[in-house]
Amino acid sequence: AIGGRLSLMRTGARSLDTALGGGLPRAGLVEIHGRETRDAGAVAGFALALASLLLKEETGKPLFWIGTAGIFNETGFPYLPGLCARFDIAPDAFLLASPGRLRDALWIAEEAARLKAFSAVFLEIEGSPRRLDLTATRRLHRRVLQAGLPLFLLREAGIAEPTAAPLRLVVAPARARPRSTLAGPLAHSIGPPSFAVGIGKSRNAASGEFILEWDAAGRGFHERRREDHGTENIGVVV
Fold first, then answer.
1. Considering 62, 96, 156, 237, which has the largest number of Cβ atoms within 10 A of its Cβ?
2. pLDDT at position 205, please?
3. How far apart are CA 14 and CA 150, in angstroms?
4. Distance between CA atoms of 11 and 20, rounded to whole angstroms?
5. CA dihedral (31, 113, 193, 206) positive or negative
6. How far is the CA of 29 from the CAs of 97, 110, 117, in angstroms?
7. By C-alpha distance, which of 145, 138, 132, 143 is closest to 105?
8. From residue 63, how far is each of 32, 55, 101 by CA, in Å?
9. Residue 13 to residues 41, 62, 95, 97, 221: CA-CA distances in angstroms?
10. pLDDT tens digits, one per residue of 84-105
């Protein structure tokens, strides 16, 4: 246990949890990487789904989402009605900081990383800025380990560079299946949000890619077989 809590958080997707050695770390730095700007919706949606899982157990502790004004102008702000409807995240459980400069965003993240008042901290950045180097990520990782909470580093359209994060997940949108009805699949409809999740870096896990669907009603992931989604990726509705 870390800070009196279980050290791993299960996603509910059995194959992914098994590949990760039981689940995602509950404390420390976790990198969620989107290779292209158009994947930003999937990256943010996947991170918000993880936040929803955390809030199931960390009731009373809000989430803290940090990003520069530039990244929000490019990818969009988190939409509060959507957070509530899709992820059951109440407005008073979601704090947002949008400084103008990356250096200020990093300072806020470092200060937040030492606090035990949050369920999790999210830092969303674009590209591979020089300021977010191995030394900076080591500071973040050390502080959240001491505080016993996770810090999710969302890297949008960046090159995978060395960081102190023990785990890097690569996330992209996956083809959504049609909605299910009593009469069968509804043609030309869009079903639950779907994510292609790859393990890009891990000290313990095997490499692999997994297709996950988010069940908003049950607040959990369901895993899909690769042959059920085809080969073409489309946008994820979050």
1. 156
2. 63
3. 21
4. 10
5. positive
6. 19, 12, 17
7. 132
8. 17, 8, 21
9. 21, 25, 28, 31, 6
10. 999 999 999 999 999 999 999 9
Structure-token pair, residue 124:
């969303």
Render the chain in DSSP notation, one character per residue. Answer: -BTTB-SEE--S-HHHHHHTTSSEESSEEEEEEESSGGGHHHHHHHHHHHHHHHHHHSTT--EEEEE-HHHHHHH----HHHHHHHH---GGGEEEE--SSHHHHHHHHHHHHT-SS-SEEEEEEES--TTS-HHHHHHHHHHHHHHT-EEEEEEES------S-SEEEEEEE-PPPPPEETTEE-TT---S-EEEEEEEEESSPPP-EEEEEEETTTTEEEEE-GGGT-S-------
Q: Residues 158-180: what's their mean pLDDT?
A: 87
Mean pLDDT of 137-160: 92
What are the pLDDT digits (tens) for 16-57? Answer: 999 988 899 999 999 999 998 889 999 999 999 999 999 887
Q: What is the pTM of this model?
A: 0.86
At 203-237, the pLDDT tens digits run 776 678 899 999 988 888 999 876 554 434 433 43
What's the token pair of residue 61? Answer: 């502790």
Q: Give the separation between CA 16 and CA 206, rounded to whole angstroms.
A: 10
* Total number of residues shown for the chain: 238
Q: Is the model's pLDDT at 2 over the cut of 50?
A: no
